[in-house]
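A note on notation is needed here, since sequence and fold are reported together in a single record. The reader may check this reading against the record printed directly beneath this paragraph.
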Amino acid sequence: MSTTFRNLQIGINPVNFEKSKTFYEEILELPYIGVLETNGISLHRFSIDGSILKLLEDGIGSVEKNPLGGPTAATGLRWLTVTVNDLDRLFEKVSNAGIPVVAPISSDENGVRFAIVEDPDGIWVELLDR
């Protein structure tokens, strides 16, 4: 018998918690679940269709440990992909907010539309059109 995986929870230790929280909550509009206090740390949680993105508040993030530049700048988690139902509107909002654009809206060989932006910690966030 094989193991079944159902959803994913990802934790980010941001360089600047407030910038990252603003990016995910206000710019990308991820639904904020709330904060979970556990083992002396605060995890701010966002819902992504059954999966959860967690931001660590008051972590030990630093630019030296987490350089900007996406997957080629450092090891570790450097790229997230999420499916959205309004790519054009969301991409315009992200662009107008001055968020770095890695790849503007385009289509892959199967006609799937996508764009890639960079979060405040240099993690690429790929937005797939539903």
